[in-house]
Amino acid sequence: MATTAPTKMDSPREHFSVSGLIAKLKARRKRKEEAPKDTRQPLRSSPLPLVLPQHQSTLVNLGWTTVTFPQPAPFPNGLSSPTSPHTSDHATPTPDTHPLQQAYEDLFKASAAFFDLPDSEKQRWKTKLGSEEGWSKIPGEKEFITLRTLEYTPDVLKEPAAKYWKLIGAHLTSSLGRIEGSLGMGTEALSRFVGPCGTLQDTDAGKTATMLRLFRYEGWEEKVVAEPHADLGLLSFVVGDVPGLEVWNGQQFIPIEKTYTQPAGTLLAGRQLQRFSNFRYPAGGHRVVSYGRPSEVDGQEKKYRFSIVFVLRAHEPVIVNSADLETEVTGKWEHPVTDMSAGVLYEQIRNAHFNINTGMKEREEQRRKLEGKKGNEKASG
Ligand SMILES: O=C(O)CCC(=O)C(=O)O
Ligand SMILES: [Fe+2]
Q1: ipTM > 0.90?
Q2: How far is the CA of 355 from the centre of ligand 2 (A)?
Q3: Ligand 1 proximity of 143 Cβ (cutoff 6 Å)
Q4: Superfamily of domain 51-69+97-317
Q5: pTM of the entire structure?
């Protein structure tokens, strides 16, 4: 959906005529009358973790929502913590930063240190699988490194990446548990697809479909730095250190990160979840924009935007049977799937979408190929 939007918005106004308008209205009414009545039950209430009440419904309606990290309550004496250097050896409980927030903050620091290395050093991690693993540089736009195993992770990132992966993996697993509930599915109907994807695996032999991608966007020219697309996995979670991510609300892109007044990240539904939920959850359309140079942070000029993107994909060997995922809320799948591995189904989904994170030339080739296939003009991340 996301890629078709700009074309629509940019299209010139159609020639206006009264008879044309009447014909259009009649056609619309006919389409409405002919459309089969949706007899599916409404979604069940099943709140997502760390999502404020006012943000609960956007994931199912639009494919994205905000995850808000609770902030430690200030102490009445005005101190940020009840402990002083003299009492710090006492076991006084301190109101801590949320562990997931702490983990992404640590990962941001390590990510900045990695990207600061000379290119000659980063070359060692040069991409192995297109944008699917290793370091890539798109000059003038961004650099990013995709992590899939500890073995192929630079030392400076190893510990913070593994820690973040574990925490976000657990968080998204519990979010999938709530999504299952909202769809009237049994326990683990969706979360069973996580398996070993919930931890950063040690070696290539244990590599899973899931990935952690660290970005450093360069330059502050006002422009789109990642084209509109939807991610391919079950759920993605994005945190940025300055606003840049925008989400599609069906009509326009919303600069969602500009609305964050406290530490928060964006949860996105991917195309696998869209499919596994029989399209009850849409895949969240999004893009990344540079708004121009942000104001100084701590008296220092900001040179880059950093972001951390975790893409949770279904573990490839897990078998999909659509009958196990059908409920009165999802309805019947139009194209049922029997004993197909999540990996094979993923390939079908992936082949229908071009990848925005490959280089310009490859991207154009992918797009051209897809344009040959009817109705497949959708991008993926
Ligand atoms: O960098 C970001 O904020 C998001 C990037 C993204 O959408 C992607 O890699 O799929
Ligand atoms: Fe994305």
Answers
A1: yes
A2: 10
A3: no
A4: B-lactam Antibiotic, Isopenicillin N Synthase; Chain (2.60.120.330)
A5: 0.83
